[in-house]
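In this section we walk through a basic example: taking a raw amino acid sequence and producing a predicted 3D structure, encoded as discrete structure tokens. The instruction is simple. Fold the sequence below.
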Amino acid sequence: MTDEPDTPAYRPRPCPECARMSLRAYDPFCSARCKDIDLNRWLSGRYRIAVRDDEEPAEDNEPSPPKH
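The resulting token sequence is shown next.
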């Protein structure tokens, strides 16, 4: 019996950066280099979550002060 918590089985899959097979230590990437390339894209703003122009901007969910 092992002391490790129950975790799902690791299944290698192609790295999203270079298509080599991923390694558990860097999952879903194959290396620290590919992982860092992806992180740099997020931090530099190249990856963005698409939104529709017709959506209303988010409003604060704070209650309004009572009116007297």
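Looking at the output, two observations stand out. The chain has one helix and no strands. The helical segments are 32-44. In the next section we compare this with other chains.
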